[in-house]
């Protein structure tokens, strides 16, 4: 009997029950996806796609955690695994690309209007959740002045590239933690299902 009670004990993240944690987190993710469309900038096909994918993932996670559905949770695990692969690939070129983009002032050469540039920047910042980082970048560029020297541009590029490194590490770590949490809940669901089937057998 003691073995059964141990197996049936709901998994926790420290003192926080994993199932409730995933339910609350998925609800927040759904609200984020809905609010993303109602942002100040004009929604584009990219923003609609991102919001739709975010909504579907969190809706699937909510259903899986609420109903203890291993199939839905397994789909979420696959999405997280694919996302971590993309982040690892991005780690090899995005920091260097971002640093070069800032230090070379290439954004000033783009053939977009100021309004379009602002919308693109706001969209990327909201998608990646880099609002505090963008504020810091604006501060660095303002500190460098409108006619920044080569050294100042180099320093700005190094700072921005380093922040991309930190952001990618943080996002990958968060996805990995969520992946492990879902995996633990799936193991609990499988163990409980196996125990119930064993109890039904004559």
UniProtKB/TrEMBL annotation:
InterPro entries according to UniProt: Glam1 (IPR024483)
| A Pfam family | Glam1
Transmembrane segment boundaries: 21-39, 45-64, 85-103, 161-182
Domain of life, source organism: Eukaryota
Coiled coil location: none
Task: Answer whether the UniProt record assigns the keyword Endoplasmic reticulum to this protein.
Answer: no
**Keywords, alphabetical:** Membrane, Transmembrane, Transmembrane helix
Task: Answer yes or no on keyword Transmembrane helix.
Answer: yes
| Name of the molecule in the record | Uncharacterized protein
- Give the organism the record lists: Caenorhabditis nigoni
Q: What is the lineage of its organism?
A: Eukaryota, Metazoa, Ecdysozoa, Nematoda, Chromadorea
């Amino acid at each position: 009997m003691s073995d059964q009670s141990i197996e049936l004990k709901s998994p926790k993240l420290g003192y926080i029950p994993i199932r409730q944690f995933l339910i609350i987190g998925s609800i927040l993710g759904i609200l984020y996806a809905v609010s993303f469309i109602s942002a100040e900038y004009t929604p584009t096909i990219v923003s609609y796609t991102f919001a739709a994918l975010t909504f579907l993932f969190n809706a699937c996670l909510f259903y899986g955690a609420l109903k203890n559905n291993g199939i839905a949770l397994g789909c979420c695990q696959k999405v997280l695994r694919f996302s971590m692969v993309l982040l690892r690939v991005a780690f090899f070129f995005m920091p260097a690309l971002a640093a070069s983009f800032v230090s070379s002032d290439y954004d000033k050469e783009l053939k977009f209007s100021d309004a379009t540039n602002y919308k693109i920047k706001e969209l990327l910042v909201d998608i990646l959740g880099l609002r505090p980082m963008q504020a810091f970048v604006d501060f660095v560029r303002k500190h460098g002045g409108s006619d920044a020297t080569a050294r100042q541009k180099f320093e700005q590029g190094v700072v921005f590239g380093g922040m991309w490194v930190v952001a990618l590490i943080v996002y990958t770590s968060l996805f990995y933690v969520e992946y492990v949490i879902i995996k633990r809940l799936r193991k609990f669901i499988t163990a409980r299902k196996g125990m119930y089937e064993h109890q039904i057998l004559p």
